[in-house]
Amino acid sequence: MVRYAAEAADAEKSCKTRGSYLRVHYKNTRETVKTVRGMHLHRAKKFLENVQEKKEIVPFPRHMGDVGRKAQCKQWGHPQGRWPKKSAVFVLGLLKNAEANAELKGLDTDSLIIRHAQVNRAPRMRRRTFRAHGRIGPYQSAPCHIEFILEESDTVVARPEEDGEAAPKKISKKKLAKQNRTN
């Protein structure tokens, strides 16, 4: 049995998935997984599909050296981001696996939330590249381990009932002054 870094609060209402020694860049995958952590399963899957099509962006708050600033990052409150396609493909595959595990356990896949998501560095894979003057340099890849724990959410937020007397709409000082001038 594989050990996870965290345990689910309720084992009957949760499902797990993990990938080990995945040949996908650690830094890109870390930022991708951090972005989907806390999302509902279907929203996370849609987000990762949008990342592959460059419709939504993954913000890069930690590993941001030489990462360009993008306008799509405004929604995340951080100026730098990328569209790590390969990381999105691997994470999407793991989320689909988690969804299949949830269906096998009889959980409601519409109410699954990503409670735990973690990426760890795996041992580097080593190759070599040939340099000038007969020297040889390292040519390494940075694979990673990814794990997810999804839980069924119990709370359903209901829409507030429409009463006759709703809260008054706030009006800015500028708009209020304009109304006073016209009246």
How would you sum up this structure, described in words?
This protein has helices at residues 26-36, 41-52, 85-105, 173-182, and strands at 14-22, 58-59, 81-82, 112-121, 125-130, 136-141, 144-152. With 183 residues, the chain is an alpha+beta fold. A hairpin with a 5-residue loop joins strand 5 and strand 6 (136-141). The radius of gyration is 23 Å and the shape is flat. The termini are far apart.
The neighbouring-strand order within the major sheet is 1-7-4
Strand content: 15-25%
Give me the number of helical elements: 4
Protein structure class: alpha+beta
Instruction: List the uncertain runs.
Output: none
Largest sheet: 3 strands, antiparallel
Reading the helices and strands in chain order gives: EHHEEHEEEEH
Computed Rg: 23 Å
Termini separation (Å)?
Answer: 75 Å
Mean pLDDT: 92
Rough outline: flat
Q: Bin the helical content.
A: 25-40%
In short:
The protein is an alpha+beta fold and 183 residues long. The protein is 30% helix and 24% strand.
Topology at a glance:
Blueprint: E1 14-22, H1 26-36, H2 41-52, E2 58-59, E3 81-82, H3 85-105, E4 112-121, E5 125-130, E6 136-141, E7 144-152, H4 173-182
Helix pairs in contact: 2-3
Q: Keywords, please?
A:
three-stranded antiparallel beta sheet, alpha+beta, single chain, two-stranded antiparallel ribbon, 24% strand, 183 residues
